[in-house]
């Protein structure tokens, strides 16, 4: 019962925290900037990821061996991959946004205009959906023999590959190549971007500007390291190195933990969000008093 209580608590915290973050960005005009536009997208992805995984996970705790249909499993694979890859690509876009804001501030309104932000966001969703559709179709097309019990919290490609009775080595190679494109390349670009940002920040004369830039970037980098590290560890290893218990623990660090921590990381270390939260609470109190 303890694991179920913890997951339920994480479920409530993730939904409420990310919903509050979306609300603050929507109602506070000071947060209507590209950085918060992408942060709202991230919060939306975290809400979707939580709703895709946690309810079925809780149902499995209550009713062990609770079956899932092939269509339901396919839908879960597609949605989990879509949200996961979208978050990978969005974190890279957010790093680019911070790079332009800090290293090229005069060109920021042009390079990160409203139209460009929408195009970047649409590109993230489109690329993630195409990737997810390809892997979902390929995974479900594999032959499965013997036991069809998935020893995992949810339907995920590495867990299903262990159940297939065919040679999956070629597909694993393809999965590895996909991982390079959507994981290693974006994460390398993010690290290079933040190296440039750190170099620029250290040359700033304003101590206040340094602190604000470092606070914003350290929050983003914390999310990047936690999320990318877990996903790379999960998807960039051969299936022979996977164990069900280890995979269950690792998967929590890119499906359950980030949606819970992201609102805290981006709010507690962000003065603008904290200021917007105080203003919103103040307006709510004034409304109740009236």
Automatic annotation (TrEMBL):
Q: Name one GO cellular component term.
A: plasma membrane
Q: Which GO terms describe its molecular function?
A: G protein-coupled receptor activity; olfactory receptor activity
The residue stretches assigned to a coiled coil in this entry are: none
Among CDD domains, the record links this protein to: 7tmA_OR2T-like
Give the location in the cell: Cell membrane
Q: Which residues cross the membrane?
A: 6-25, 75-96, 116-134, 174-201, 213-237, 249-268
**Main location (coarse class):** membrane
Residue stretches making up the G-protein coupled receptors family 1 profile domain = 17-266
- PROSITE patterns from the xrefs? G_PROTEIN_RECEP_F1_1, G_PROTEIN_RECEP_F1_2
Sorted keywords for this record are: Cell membrane, G-protein coupled receptor, Membrane, Olfaction, Receptor, Sensory transduction, Transducer, Transmembrane, Transmembrane helix
Its placement in the membrane is given as: Multi-pass membrane protein
Tell me which family the UniProt entry assigns to this protein: Belongs to the G-protein coupled receptor 1 family.
What is the protein name given in its UniProt record? Olfactory receptor
